[in-house]
Write a structure and sequence with these properties.
phosphoprotein, Diguanylate cyclase, PAS, rod-shaped, 16 strands, GGDEF_dom, alpha/beta, five-stranded parallel beta sheet, 429 residues
Length: 429
């Protein structure tokens, strides 16, 4: 069964057009054709029917093959276009090919016509298939772009040389650069050098086939805010299994980090006073018992009259008294000392590298801070019962803690009969 071939001939000589049809029929085609010989007729034929091939005479009265080819190209048509002529030379043939003709056939050598038509139709089909694939790829890429643009996580992808190929809207907003501004730029053009180097090492690991890589870092966003991030990266492959580059994503973990810091703080600090709590004190006591910072002195402190204040002035006043005590203790001791609230009205201070002489100086400093603070808080003055002891090695530490506690309670019971001169002697006796 012959293959249907719809042919539009642009030819001023009917006999020559008929010879073309005969040649095609002899080549195995079932030819349906129409002949036109002017620009208007050509345009009408293109508007009213679909054609498999156009065979056009190079020279015609008032018209030409190059003009016909121009009309076809201006319409964006990809119908195979063969130029045919009787006497033109190689320059004219070359000009026709440069203008977009698929082939040039001499009328004296029509044996080339059928192979030329077959090849031109096959090449047009390949071009059409290629355009269809390109369109499908474009639509897929547009879909992917729309998809990743809807994600709040910044996403980007680089070529094997580390140059940016694309990203999503969230990434643009994160770095403060529009999509076109970072294309073909490297990570060193966008991020600070130290962070860019860190990220590059992650990309190298991913490139070496280790698999997806993640690491944490901090970046400065477009609004100037520093944010904690997890960087994820993984390689993607081309059709030939070669590396196509690296795709990456940034996950903002700033809130998580802040929550972790808060939890860490709450696990070691007293909520009311802001100083260390009993759990942290126990850890430090254990650590100091195994360390080399001896002698270690311990100061036990009890807030006097707390129950009385709570009963008569309310718990808010009692809380103020506890915060007052914590402030006095924190200001009185050194930065390396550990001050903690270990009970309702009890506080303790661990003083590493502190012998008895240095301890007395610390207690004098505490009394001075207490007096100054009470002068500023005359409405609700603070009274503290204090006991202290010094341990010279790890084995003595727990015993010194108990001794300091006993001395503190001894002072608390005998405060009414104590005087300022004897108080200092009792603290460390």
């Amino acid at each position: 069964m012959k293959r249907l071939l719809r042919v539009l001939t642009v030819e001023d000589a009917p006999d020559d057009a008929q010879l073309i049809v005969i040649q095609l029929e002899q080549g195995g085609f079932d030819v349906h054709f129409q002949r036109v010989d002017s620009a208007q007729a050509l345009t009408e034929a293109l508007d009213t029917a679909s054609w498999d091939v156009i065979i056009c005479d190079y020279v015609m009265p008032g018209f030409s093959g190059l003009k016909a080819l121009q009309i076809l190209k201006e319409r964006g048509s990809d119908v195979p276009f063969l130029m045919i002529s009787g006497k033109v030379g190689e320059e004219a043939a070359a000009a026709a090919i440069r203008a977009g003709a698929d082939d040039f056939v001499l009328k004296g050598n029509l044996a080339r016509l059928v192979p030329a038509v077959q090849r031109s139709i096959a090449e047009a089909a390949l071009r059409q298939q290629s355009r269809r694939h390109e369109q499908e790829l474009k639509e897929k890429l547009e879909f992917i772009q729309v998809l990743i643009d809807t994600l709040p996580t910044p996403i980007f992808y680089n070529d094997p040389n580390g140059l940016y190929l694309g990203c999503n809207r969230a990434f643009e907003e994160q770095i403060g650069m529009k999509r076109g501004e970072h294309i073909n730029k490297s990570i060193y053009d966008i991020l600070p050098p130290d962070l860019a180097a860190l990220y590059s090492r992650g990309e190298e690991t991913a490139e070496n086939g280790v698999g997806p890589r993640s690491f944490e870092g901090t970046i400065t966003c477009a609004d100037g805010e520093r944010r904690d991030m997890i960087f994820y990266s993984a390689t993607f492959k081309n059709s030939g299994s070669s590396s196509g580059g690296v795709v990456g994503a940034l996950l903002d973990i700033s809130e998580r980090k802040q929550a972790e810091l808060k939890l860490r703080y709450l696990s070691s600090h007293d909520i009311l006073t802001g100083i260390y709590n009993r759990a942290y004190f126990d850890e430090e006591l254990e650590r100091l018992s195994k360390g080399r910072k001896f002698p270690v002195s311990i100061v036990m402190v009890d807030v006097d009259r707390l129950k009385e204040v709570n009963d008569h002035q309310g718990h808010a006043a009692g809380d103020d008294l506890l915060r007052h005590a914590a402030e006095v203790l924190k200001n009185a001791f050194r930065r390396e000392d550990v001050v903690a609230r270990v009970g309702g009205d009890e506080f303790v201070a661990l003083l590493p590298n502190t012998d008895e002489t240095t301890l007395r100086e610390a207690l004098e400093r505490l009394q001075a801070h207490l007096a100054t603070s009470n002068h500023e808080h005359a409405v609700l003055p603070l009274s503290l019962s204090i006991g202290a002891a010094t341990a010279h090695d790890g084995e003595e530490l727990m015993a010194s803690w108990r001794l300091a506690d006993q001395r503190m309670y001894r002072q608390k019971k005998g405060r009414k009969n104590s005087n300022a001169g004897s108080r200092q002697h009792q603290l460390v006796a």
